[in-house]
C-alpha cells in the first residue's frame, strides 16, 4: 500500500552533502560587503575572504595537495588560519591544526602520525617546526605565513603565494562522511590521539551552535578559543552562517583582549575558565555594558569565577564537550526563574553542564556496572555517554581505542556526573580523578570549587594521596596570587568550614600548577606527585 513512501528517490535534487563549505559559499553573496575579519589594520569583507579561501585552495592544489591529504598547520589565531578552515576542505584535504604551545617532541609525533603532506607555519613558529623535523629525521614542504616579517621562515612558498592564484570554483565533497579535520587530544595521559571529523558533523555542530547560543545576525565575535582546539569549537564555520565580524588579536594577553572588546564592541566570544579568570583579575578590566555573551568550556568553571565574570558584564553560559565531539554538545541553558536567585546561587546553577545542544541526539549518565541511567537525585554518579552526529568518525590509526570508546553504540566520555531533578547534568570529575576515601566518593571538582572561593587562591587542583587509614585522602595543589600569605592549616580550615570534613584536603602543596597549552591543569602530573609524597602520616 505504501510502496511509494519507501521508494528509493534520493537524487541530486533532494540530497546534497552537508558541509560547512556551504556556509562560506552563501556568505560570499549574502554578506558580500559586510566585514568578515579585522586584524590590526587588516579588514576584509566576506566577499574578499571567500575569494582568498578559494585562491588558497587553488594554491595548495598547485603544490600537489589532493583529496585525502593531510595539511598540518602551526599558527596562532589570525586570518590565515581562519581561511584555511575553508581552503583545505575545499580541496577535499584534511586540516590538522597543531597546538602551537606543544613541545617539539609532540609536534614531531603529530606531524608523523597524521601522515601530513605539507606544513603551513607562522614564521614565528619556524624554530619549533625545524626541531620537530630534526626529531623525525625528515623534512616536509613548508608554506610560510609571514605575519611577523622579522622572523625567518623556510623560504619555499608563502601564504601570499597561495592567495595569488585564481580562485577555485566551489565544490562540495562527494560524501559528507569524508574526513574534514584531524584534531589531536591534549595528551594529558600519554600520546595524543588523532580524532577524525567529517563534513556532516562540522556542518551540524555549526548549525547547532547558532541555535543553541541564539546567535543573532552579524555578531561581533572575538577569536579567543584557539583554532587548534576543536577547530575553535567550530566557531569559524558558525560565523559564516550569521555573517559575523571576527576580531583577531594574535595572542590572548588580557590587556589586548579587553581593549579589543571595548574598541570593537564585541558581542560574543568563547573562552576557557582560566581566560575568564585572567580577564576578571586584570587591572584593565572595566564592566561591560551591554553585556558580552560568552561560552566557557574546557573544565568545570568554579562558581567564584562565574560570579566575578557576571560582575564584569560577561553573560556566561557553561558548555561541555570533548575533542571527540567536535567541542560542545551540552549547555547550561538559562532558566528565567534563576534570575531571582542570589548571585552565589545563580553561579552554582551556571556551573552545571546542562542539557543537550539542539544537534545532539542523546546524552545519558550511566551506571557502568548495571548499564542503567542514574536517578535524577543530584547525588548518584555515573559516566556521561553521548550519541550524536557530532561524534568523531574514530581515532586515526587506532581501531582498538575507537572500539572501546564506542562500546555498545555510545561514545563513552570518561567523565563522572550526576543528573539533577530538572534533567540538568553536572560533572563531578573525570572518572580517574574521583577520590575514594573510607568508602566515600569525593569529587575533586567540588573541593576545587571551595578552594577557588578563597581570595588568595589563583588556581587549584585536587587529587588522591595514599592514606594508610582511609585508602586515599584529598591532596590540594594550590597556586597563590602574588604576595598572598596563606598557610596549609588556614586553607584546610577554610574548606572544613564550607564542606563536609572528610571532603576537605588533608594535604596542601603550594606552587605553580602544570598546565596544558589549552589551560587545563595536568592532573596526571599532580597524581604522580601525590603518590611520590607517600601515605599521609
From TrEMBL:
Keywords, sorted A to Z: Fatty acid metabolism, Ligase, Lipid metabolism
Transmembrane segments: none
The AMP-dependent synthetase/ligase domain, residue ranges: 27-396
InterPro entries: AMP-bd_C, AMP-bd_C_sf, AMP-binding_CS, AMP-dep_synth/lig_dom, ANL_N_sf
Stored PROSITE patterns: AMP_BINDING (PS00455)
Domain of life: Bacteria
Residue ranges of every copy of the AMP-binding enzyme C-terminal domain listed in the record: 446-520
Pfam annotation, one family: AMP-binding
UniProt record similarity statement: Belongs to the ATP-dependent AMP-binding enzyme family.
The name this protein goes by in its record: AMP-binding protein
Organism: Labrys neptuniae
Amino acid at each position: 500500500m505504501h510502496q511509494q513512501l519507501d521508494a528509493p528517490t534520493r537524487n541530486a535534487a533532494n540530497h546534497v552533502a552537508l558541509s560547512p563549505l556551504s556556509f562560506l559559499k552563501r556568505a560570499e553573496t549574502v554578506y558580500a560587503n559586510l566585514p568578515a575579519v579585522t586584524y590590526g589594520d587588516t579588514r576584509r569583507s566576506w566577499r574578499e575572504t571567500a575569494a582568498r579561501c578559494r585562491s588558497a585552495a587553488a594554491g595548495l592544489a598547485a603544490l600537489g595537495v589532493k583529496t585525502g591529504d593531510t595539511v598540518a598547520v602551526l599558527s596562532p589565531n589570525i586570518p590565515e588560519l581562519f581561511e584555511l578552515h575553508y581552503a583545505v576542505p575545499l580541496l577535499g584535504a584534511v586540516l590538522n591544526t597543531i597546538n602551537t604551545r606543544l613541545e617539539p617532541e609532540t609536534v614531531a609525533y603529530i606531524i608523523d602520525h597524521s601522515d601530513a603532506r605539507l606544513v603551513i607555519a607562522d614564521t614565528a613558529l619556524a624554530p619549533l617546526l625545524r626541531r620537530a623535523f630534526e626529531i623525525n629525521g625528515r623534512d616536509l614542504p613548508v608554506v610560510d605565513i609571514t605575519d611577523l616579517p622579522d622572523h625567518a621562515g623556510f623560504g619555499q612558498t608563502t601564504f601570499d603565494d597561495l592567495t595569488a592564484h585564481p580562485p577555485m570554483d566551489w565544490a562540495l565533497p562527494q560524501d559528507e562522511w569524508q574526513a574534514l579535520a584531524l584534531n589531536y587530544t591534549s595528551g594529558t595521559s600519554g600520546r595524543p590521539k588523532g580524532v577524525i571529523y567529517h563534513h556532516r558533523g562540522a556542518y551540524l555542530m555549526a548549525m547547532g551552535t547558532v541555535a543553541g547560543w541564539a546567535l543573532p545576525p552579524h555578531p561581533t565575535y572575538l577569536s579567543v578559543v584557539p583554532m587548534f582546539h576543536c577547530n575553535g569549537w567550530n566557531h569559524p564555520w558558525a560565523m559564516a552562517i550569521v555573517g559575523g565580524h571576527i576580531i583577531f588579536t594574535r595572542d590572548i594577553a588580557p590587556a589586548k583582549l579587553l581593549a579589543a572588546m571595548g574598541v570593537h564592541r564585541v558581542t560574543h566570544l568563547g573562552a576557557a575558565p582560566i581566560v575568564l579568570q585572567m580577564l576578571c583579575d586584570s587591572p584593565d578590566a572595566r564592566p561591560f555594558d551591554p553585556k558580552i555573551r560568552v561560552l566557557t568550556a574546557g573544565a568545570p568553571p568554579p562558581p567564584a569565577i562565574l560570579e566575578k565574570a557576571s560582575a564584569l558584564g560577561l553573560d556566561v553560559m557553561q558548555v561541555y564537550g570533548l575533542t571527540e565531539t567536535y567541542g560542545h554538545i551540552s549547555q547550561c541553558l538559562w532558566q528565567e526563574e534563576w534570575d531571582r536567585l542570589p548571585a552565589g546561587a545563580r553561579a552554582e546553577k551556571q556551573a552545571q553542564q546542562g542539557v543537550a545542544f539542539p544537534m545532539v541526539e542523546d546524552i545519558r549518565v550511566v551506571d557502568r556496572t548495571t548499564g542503567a541511567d542514574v536517578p535524577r537525585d543530584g547525588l548518584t554518579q555515573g559516566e556521561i555517554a553521548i550519541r550524536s552526529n557530532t561524534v568523531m568518525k574514530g581515532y586515526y590509526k587506532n581501531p582498538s581505542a575507537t572500539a572501546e570508546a564506542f562500546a555498545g553504540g555510545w561514545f563513552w566520555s570518561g567523565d563522572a556526573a550526576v543528573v539533577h531533578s530538572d534533567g540538568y547534568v553536572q560533572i563531578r570529575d573525570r572518572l580517574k580523578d574521583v577520590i575514594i576515601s573510607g568508602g566515600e566518593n569525593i569529587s575533586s571538582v567540588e573541593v576545587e570549587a571551595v578552594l577557588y572561593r578563597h581570595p588568595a587562591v589563583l588556581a587549584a587542583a585536587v587529587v588522591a594521596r595514599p592514606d594508610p587509614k582511609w585508602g586515599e585522602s584529598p591532596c590540594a595543589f594550590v597556586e597563590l596570587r602574588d604576595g598572598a600569605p596563606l598557610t596549609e592549616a588556614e586553607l584546610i580550615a577554610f574548606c572544613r568550614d564550607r564542606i563536609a570534613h572528610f571532603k576537605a584536603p588533608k594535604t596542601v602543596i603550594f606552587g605553580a600548577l602544570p598546565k596544558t597549552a589549552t589551560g587545563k591543569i595536568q592532573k596526571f602530573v599532580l597524581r604522580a606527585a601525590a603518590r611520590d609524597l607517600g601515605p599521609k602520616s
